[in-house]
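**Sequence with structure:**
===
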Amino acid sequence: AIISNYAIYLKEKSSIDDTLDVFPSHGIGGVVGMLLTAVFAAEVGLVYGETHTFLYHLLALVITGVLCFGGSYLIYMLVDAILPIRVREDQEEKGLDLSQHGEKAGEV
């Protein structure tokens, strides 16, 4: 929990757009939990002098990260090819409320 809260604190200081704090809380927490399990596992952990469990966990972490990133990137590219994700620059300058909904926000 301390690591996840610190990751959320660092995320708020950066320009990363993660409104729900999903990666700092679940991603970082999961990575730390996975690695520390391999460190403190009874009889096969790193603190008992065994390295194979830690190395397997580290390898699984790298493979999972690569597959998740690659799969997400592929899905992003497919969706962007079908329906552009980014709005055009002229729409952004005009304002998305006006260009997307035909009204100005805040007008009473």
